[in-house]
Design goal:
With 70 residues, this protein is mainly alpha-helical. The chain has one domain: Arc Repressor Mutant, subunit A (Orthogonal Bundle). The chain is built from three helices and two strands; from the N terminus they run H-H-H-E-E. Helix 2 packs across helix 3. The longest helix has 18 residues. It is globular and about 30 Å long.
Amino acid sequence: MAFWQKKGEEREEMDGVIQRSPGIRPAELARQMGVSRSTVQRRLPAMEEAGYLYSEDERGGLWPFRRVRR
């Protein structure tokens, strides 16, 4: 499997969890995805670059915006 295709699948999976659970905290997101919390924290900037936009509340919960297609 090509590197970028794999990353696209990971982004889609992560976005799907956030879309289904608005306000989810990174630790819970990591638990549901079976990865470490640091992995989630590293992926978030790449998600933004790919057009997945989230807002973070005062508790650290992630809230989705509509995806910007690039």
